[in-house]
Write a structure and sequence with these properties.
heterodimer, A: mainly alpha, 4 helices, 2% strand, B: mainly alpha, two-stranded antiparallel sheet, 21 helices, 71% helix, elongated
Chain lengths: 104, 572
């Protein structure tokens, strides 16, 4: 039981899982050659269209999201204590905060 | 049968009233009984108008049942049952009452036959649900609740404005197809769009849902947005604009989801992404597309509920929800882990899980109607869903690096609720006919052909491969404690800053005007001082002697004049 609980503490098990993933991916790619599919779009006919689209799509997604962090990310307390307060206090804090933002 | 004319919201409202005065096992039994009995009752009800009422000059249709309404009716009973069981351990009367009122309002809205009844329940949805956010009783949730309420009420006001214009041009206020004609069409469209999380109108969702209580978010994720989907499906099917709005909704949230740290906020983004698929389906408007849209709404409530429940369980047990603070929980929460993975597989649309049997209908409809670019975007979004909801959620909560948290499984009722949802995910995934027979249009669609299964499996496994590769290359963005700017920034930051700037400007102008005024005043005062000041010409003191001399002088002049006059008339 204890061994099962710490399943992924062993690096070997992680490696095994990755190997299974590689094997399944390779098999799915090979199936493209043997299975005749009923296509509705001409791009679907390309060998490996779905695998490539999935892989490239996800890499692009992650890299773009990572880039978005450069201008969207702020400190965890960015909005704190500001939403509900009113009047002059808002202005004071905003001007301080803007100074910080520029430096980021 | 007399009970057939009782609208489904009535038992829920009564139960809410009773839940306020009962406690313990009695309250629990009552709260479970109501959705079960309501479901059975609804199952036996036939289509048609069951309850009408006249108020003032308006003929209200309080209970209209048709196939579209039935589907959402069954769904909301199921969702209420699951959420109620999940929240059974809660002793907080406020949450129990609000949850039942909220579920009842959603049922009232989908069975409302006219626009005024719809409006009433539209607002009740907002008023009842905000307490689920406030129930967290933190400063943060208080302000998030206020913002949520303001925007929800705004949606209601737009709806009301639309209804007023609608009544000018239409004889009947029956809630049916509206379309984008006239100002009323656009106002109602916008009102629904806010609740539906259209791009730029979605800020309330990702702002407020993660701030609610662990159990409250499960309720929230089920009802408001799905009522909006129902309303769109009834009033705007086949509106092409919706195809593009929906495509945008599927794509933009997944970028935010990848970099978001709060795992319940990741799920909120993924909720918008799933709504996007439904909106596209409604926009295409064919029988297949509409079936796909509402079927996906059905499945989404259950698998998204399951995911929110699993993250709620993590939050409940560990008190943490940020990806940066979690990890390794599979060791101490194996059951929750498995249940979460079932939800993740369902939202990712793996074959044999529920998401697959409904999402593929929308995708097929997009291709069949020559929305090729939209289809490509949907395909990208499908891969992205798997990436952020399918892998990221389970990975960062339960696997990744061991954060050293030694938790326990959540309370039994939470596990039961998650198990029911997981069972439904598998049941609908394996036997899609069960769901298909409830859809508004007859369908002979079969998702399980070789082409679909292979394509989807390839897409998903290679997305997983991309995740593994990015992680091994250390390219995957780490979970960071942070806030990412989104549409809510406009009213949480930009507008307050703009208001401050305007105030500062007004203050400056005001100061200038006051100073100019003071100068004019000062000038006037100095003039007055010059003329009336000490020893000034108008303020010299006159002595009695001076006055006497002047009077003598005056009298002398009179005397002189008198002499002159007398001289003229002197007798000769």
């Amino acid at each position: 039981m204890a061994e099962k609980i710490a399943l992924f503490d062993k690096r070997e098990n992680v490696r095994r899982l990755l190997h299974v993933l590689y094997f399944v991916c390779a098999t799915l790619l090979l199936l493209d050659l043997f299975i005749h599919r009923h296509v509705e779009h001409s791009w679907e006919r390309l060998i490996g269209f779905y695998p490539m689209y999935g892989f490239v799509g996800c890499v692009v997604l992650v890299l773009v999201a990572k880039w978005m962090r450069t201008f969207l990310m702020r400190g965890e307390d960015y909005y704190d204590g500001r939403d509900g307060t009113a009047g002059g206090a808002v202005g004071d804090r905003v001007s301080q905060e803007e100074g910080n933002d520029v430096g980021r | 049968m007399w009970a057939a004319s009782i609208p489904p919201f009535v038992p829920f409202f009564l139960a809410a009233a009773l839940a306020g005065v009962t406690r313990g096992a009695l309250r629990s039994a009552l709260m479970i009984l109501i959705p079960v009995a309501g479901f059975v009752q609804l199952w036996m009800t036939s289509a048609g108008i069951h309850l009408q009422a006249s108020v003032l000059d308006f003929d209200l249709i309080l209970y209209r049942a048709d196939r579209l309404g039935f589907l959402f009716g069954y769904l909301f009973h199921l969702a209420a049952l699951i959420a109620v069981i999940y929240a059974l351990h809660i002793r907080d009367t406020l949450q129990q009452v609000a949850g039942l009122l909220y579920a009842g309002s959603a049922l009232g809205a989908v069975f409302a036959g006219d626009l005024i009844t719809l409006f009433v329940f539209w607002e009740l949805l907002a008023l009842s649900s905000v307490f689920l956010i406030w129930a967290r009783r933190s400063e943060r949730s208080y302000y998030a609740g206020i913002r949520y309420l303001v925007i929800q009420v705004l949606s209601g006001l737009l709806l009301l404005g639309g209804i007023i214009f609608y009544s000018d041009t239409h004889d009947s206020l029956t809630f049916t197809y509206i379309g984008l004609q006239g100002i009323e069409g656009w106002l109602i469209f916008l009102a629904i769009g806010i609740k539906c999380g259209f791009p730029l109108l979605h800020g309330w969702l990702t702002d407020a849902y993660p701030e609610a209580t662990p159990t409250g978010t499960v309720f929230l994720s089920a009802f408001t947005t799905k009522v909006a989907i129902y309303a769109l499906a009834r009033a705007y099917p086949g509106t092409e604009l919706l195809v593009y709005i929906g495509a945008a909704m599927t794509c933009f949230p997944i970028f935010f989801a990848v970099i978001e740290n709060d795992l319940r906020r990741v799920l909120a983004y993924s909720l918008i992404n799933q709504l996007g698929f439904m909106v596209v389906g409604i926009g295409i408007g064919t029988a297949l597309a509409l079936n796909g849209a509402v079927a996906h709404a059905f499945n989404d409530v259950i698998f998204k509920g399951l995911l929110f429940m699993s993250m709620g369980a993590v939050l409940h047990v560990t008190g943490r929800i940020n990806g940066s603070e979690l990890g390794g929980l599979y060791k101490s929460m194996p059951k929750t882990t498995v249940l979460c993975i079932i939800g993740a597989a369902s939202i990712s649309a793996f074959p044999l899980f529920s998401g697959f049997v409904s999402k593929s209908m929308v995708m097929s409809a997009a291709l069949a109607n020559d929305f090729n670019w939209v289809w490509l975007l949907l395909l990208f979004a499908s891969a992205g869903v798997f990436h952020h909801a399918g892998i990221k959620i389970p990975y960062f909560a339960f696997f990744a690096h061991d954060a050293g948290i030694r938790a326990t499984e959540p309370p039994r009722n939470m596990l039961v609720a998650m198990s029911i949802a997981a069972a439904l995910c598998l049941l609908i995934g394996i036997f899609p006919g069960m769901l298909y027979q409830l859809l508004p249009y007859e369908t002979n669609y079969s998702p399980y052909d070789v082409t679909h299964v292979l394509a989807q499996t390839q897409l998903l496994f290679f997305s997983a491969l991309a995740f593994a590769w990015l992680n091994l290359q250390r390219l995957y963005p780490p979970e960071l404690p942070s806030v990412n700017l989104d549409a809510d920034w406009i009213y949480r930051r930009a507008l307050p800053v703009l208001w401050t700037r305007i105030s500062v400007l007004l203050w400056t102008v005001d100061t200038w005007v006051r100073r100019a005024g003071m100068e004019v005043l000062q000038h006037g005062i100095s003039q007055v001082t010059r003329l009336h000041g000490p020893r000034a010409i108008f303020s010299r003191n006159w002595t009695t002697g001076d006055i006497a001399i002047w009077i003598v002088l005056l009298l002398a002049v009179y005397l002189l004049l008198g002499f002159l006059r007398a001289g003229n008339h002197a007798p000769v």
